[in-house]
Design brief:
The complex is a heterodimer.
Chain A (H helix, E strand, L loop, with lengths): L4 E3 L2 E4 L5 E6 L6 E8 L3 E9 L2 E5 L6 E5 L5 E5 L8 E8 L9 E2 L3 E5 L1
Parallel strand pairs in A: 2-11
Antiparallel strand pairs in A: 1-3, 3-8, 4-5, 4-9, 5-6, 7-8, 9-10, 9-11
Chain B lengths: L3 E4 L2 E5 L4 E7 L5 E7 L5 E7 L2 E5 L2 E6 L4 E6 L8 E8 L6 E3 L3 E6 L1
Parallel strand pairs in B: 2-11
Antiparallel strand pairs in B: 1-3, 3-8, 4-5, 4-9, 6-7, 7-8, 9-10, 9-11
The chains are: A mainly beta, B mainly beta.
Chain lengths: 114, 109
C-alpha cells in the first residue's frame, strides 16, 4: 500500500509568486491535514480537510489556502510568497475525522523563497 | 507559553543506554502522539496514546492523564535511533495537532 505522497519534494520560488503543493493520501483515507515546519516556529497546523470540506484552520494569513478533491487528494496554495514562507510543508492523512485516528505523514515539500 | 513542552531539547547518548524524553501539556486532549523525524524531513508516527502505556520493540510510551505528562523511553539505544522526537497532542476530532519543539537525539556508537 503506497504511503502519503507529496509533490514536488523541492521547490524554489521568487518573492511575490504563488505556489501550489500537492498531497495524495493513503488509499481509503479521507482526511488530509497540512503543517508548516520552520526552524524558528517549529511545526504548526495549517488546515485540515475531510470529505472536500475544510474542518479546521490554523492561525495563518489568508494567503494560505487549500482544497480537497473528490478522490481525497489535497492541494495547498500560497499566494504572494514572502521570504518567511520558506519552510518544509508536510501533509498527513488519516482514515476519518474521528478523535484518536492515527495520522500518516508524507515526506514533505521543501519550499525556498528567494 | 506553548501548550506542549518537551525536555530535553538535545540529548546525546552512548549506544546501549536507556533514554527518556518527557512531554508535558497544559490543555485537555483527546490523544497524545509521539513522532519521529529523520534528517530529510519525513515524519513517522510512533505512538498514539490516550491512556496507559504502549510498547513497540525497544520503544515504550506512557501517559499520565491526571498529571498531563507523557514519556517516551528507548531501551538499548542504537545509532539508528538518532532523530528528532516530537510530542504532539490532538484536542478534538481530526488532526489539528499542537506540537512540542522536539528533542534531538544523537546515539554515539
Amino acid at each position: 500500500k503506497a504511503g502519503v505522497t507529496q509533490t514536488p519534494r523541492y521547490l524554489i520560488k521568487t518573492r511575490g509568486q504563488q505556489v501550489t503543493l500537492s498531497c495524495s493520501p493513503i488509499s481509503g483515507h479521507r482526511s488530509v491535514s497540512w503543517y508548516q515546519q520552520t526552524p524558528g516556529q517549529g511545526l504548526q497546523f495549517l488546515f485540515e480537510y475531510f470529505s472536500e470540506t475544510q474542518r479546521n484552520k490554523g492561525n495563518f494569513p489568508g494567503r494560505f489556502s487549500g482544497r480537497q478533491f473528490s478522490n481525497s487528494r489535497s492541494e495547498m496554495n500560497v499566494s504572494t510568497l514572502e521570504l518567511g514562507d520558506s519552510a518544509l510543508y508536510l501533509c498527513a492523512s488519516s482514515l476519518g475525522w474521528e478523535a484518536n485516528t492515527e495520522a500518516f505523514f508524507g515526506q514533505g515539500t521543501r519550499l525556498t523563497v528567494v | 507559553k506553548n501548550e506542549v513542552e518537551q525536555s530535553p531539547q538535545n540529548l546525546t547518548a552512548q549506544e546501549g543506554e536507556f533514554i527518556t524524553i518527557n512531554c508535558s501539556y497544559s490543555v485537555g486532549i483527546s490523544a497524545l502522539h509521539w513522532l519521529q523525524q529523520h534528517p530529510g524531513g519525513g515524519i513517522v508516527s510512533l505512538f498514539m496514546l490516550s491512556s496507559g502505556k504502549k510498547k513497540h520493540g525497544r520503544l515504550i510510551a506512557t501517559i499520565n492523564i491526571q498529571e498531563k505528562h507523557s514519556s517516551l523511553h528507548i531501551t538499548a539505544s542504537h545509532p539508528r535511533d538518532s532523530a528528532v522526537y516530537i510530542c504532539a497532542v490532538s484536542r478534538n476530532t481530526g488532526n489539528q495537532f499542537y506540537f512540542g519543539t522536539g528533542t534531538s537525539l544523537t546515539v554515539i556508537p
